[in-house]
Amino acid sequence: MAKVDGASEEQSALIFLGTGCSGGVPKAQCLIRPSNPACPVCSQSLSVKPEHNPNYRCNTSLLIDYCETNGDHNYILIDVGKTFREQVLRWFTYYKIRWVDCVLLTHEHADAVHGLDDVCSMHQSALINNASQLPIYATQECMDSVLSRFPYLRKGEHKQGVVDWKIIEENFEKPFIASGLQVYPLPVSPHRSLYGALVRPSIFMFL
Length: 207
Description:
There is one protein chain. The chain is of the alpha/beta class. The protein has one domain: Metallo-beta-lactamase, Chain A. The chain has helices spanning about 30, 40-45, 85-90, 110-115, 115-125, 140-150; strands spanning about 1-5, 15-20, 60-65, 75-80, 100-105, 135-140, 165, 175-180, 180-185. α3 (about 85-90) links the parallel β4 (about 75-80) and β5 (about 100-105). It is globular and about 50 Å long.
C-alpha cells in the first residue's frame, strides 16, 4: 500500500485484529480433548487475558487506521473471518472504533470472509446516520464464491443498500484507491501448489 497526498503518518496506525490460523488459537480440540502431554500453547492460552496473551489469537485480520491531515480517520479492514465478532468486542471497543470505511478481501476462505454478515450488520446501523454503502474490494473469483454462500449480499437483495462490490484485478501494475490509500494487488498462492501439502510416499520435492 502507498500513502496518497494528505496523509498524516504520525496519527495513522496498524491494528492487528488477529494473527491466528483458521481455527484460531487456542484450538478447541486441544482444550476439550488435550493430548498427553498437553499442548503448551493451548493449555496456557486461558491463563492470561486475551488482550495480553500471545497464545490467544483470532483469524488473521488487519485494520488500517488512516488519518488524514485534517484529523479525519479512515478505517480499512483487511479480511473478516469467522472470529470477526470477537475481534470487534475486543479491539473495536478498546480503540473506540465505531465504523469501517471499506473491506479488502484477500481470498475466499472461511477465515477471511465468514464475518461479512457481522460487518454488514454493523454498517447497516450506520446507514441510519446517512453513511454511504460499504465498499468491499475483491477479485471476481472471490466475490463469486462469497455470493454463493451469502446470496443476500447480491445487488437487488434486501441488503443491497449496505454493500458496494468493487472488483479488482490480480495485477500489481493496476493499483486502486481504497478510502484514501493506494493499494497494489500482489497475487500469491497460499494454498495452491504447495510443495509438501499433499505428500506422496517416496516422492520428495525441493525448492
